[in-house]
What we know:
Elements: H1 6-30, H2 34-47, H3 54-68
Amino acid sequence: xxxxxxxxxxxxxxxxxxxxxxxxxxxxxxxxxxxxxxxxxxxxxxxxxxxxxxxxxxxxxxxxxxxxxxx
Length: 71
């Protein structure tokens, strides 16, 4: 029986979870729910600080703030 590497599995799962979190924030933004998108982006940056989508989330967060008039 081939045993998979638990660390590799964890990393892959974490990457997937981060991607889902990003998509959720993007959907909130598209729906005009900017406060929920901002909240989701902030949580993403806390949970996945070195995720490949980090800069995408930062850009999305910036767009959210522009839409709400916050800086």
